[in-house]
Amino acid sequence: PPFVKGESAYFISVNRNKKSMTLNLKKEKSVDIVHRLIKQADVLIENFRPGTMEKLSLSYDEVKEINPKIIYCSISGFGQDGPYRLLPGMDQVLQGMGGLMSITGEPDGPPIKVGVAVADIAGGMFAAYGIVVALFNRETGGKGQMIDLSLLDCQVAWLTYRAGSFFASGEIPKPLGSGHPVIVPYQAFKAKDVYVNVAAGNDQLWQKFCKALGLENIMNEQRFATNAMRVKNSSSNN
């Protein structure tokens, strides 16, 4: 839910502008249809659990026999090998295992999931990147290839500078609400009746921000003069 004229809004949101065909891949006739499609396809994408495509006679080795130039992208929760390979990859679980929930939410609060399925979305984006690169490689003299894409890998990649900070300092990142770990002020502040979103991303914007609010008296105070000092004294800046 919700449904619009009998169609799921969720389904439509991720399947708009797509042409679809329903096939029962456990039936030989359906597999024959897929084989015919593979002969003229550039890309095959599948997101079954590892081992399922082999049971359906649609493994990469079998598919490349039909079309050696095909780009075969397998998307799974935890990759095609490893101890978790056969576990289902749900967005909720992946956000937790990938570290995102541990840095989302209010300080000292419970782990919070991002409001949309970012682990699933990240998987789709990284799959698209990988497929485009594989197609480019094929067109420049290469061959078809298989892409083994793990949703957990994609989620960890999205930790970006928070992961970099951990490896540089050894300090475990913590949730900061709407705040930023290395830029201040850069968060939503509660005013009398609404929240005000502030993004003073550098010292010049900090000065403009102070002037707009008539706070010239603190603009050049030593403890707030630079972003590094504002981060250090962020509790004084809230």
UniProtKB/TrEMBL annotation:
<dbReference type="InterPro" id="IPR044855">
    <property type="entry name" value="CoA-Trfase_III_dom3_sf"/>
</dbReference>
<dbReference type="Pfam" id="PF02515">
    <property type="entry name" value="CoA_transf_3"/>
</dbReference>
<keyword id="KW-0808">Transferase</keyword>
<dbReference type="InterPro" id="IPR003673">
    <property type="entry name" value="CoA-Trfase_fam_III"/>
</dbReference>
<dbReference type="InterPro" id="IPR023606">
    <property type="entry name" value="CoA-Trfase_III_dom_1_sf"/>
</dbReference>
<dbReference type="InterPro" id="IPR050483">
    <property type="entry name" value="CoA-transferase_III_domain"/>
</dbReference>
<protein>
    <recommendedName>
        <fullName>CoA transferase</fullName>
    </recommendedName>
</protein>
<dbReference type="GO" id="GO:0008410">
    <property type="term" value="F:CoA-transferase activity"/>
</dbReference>
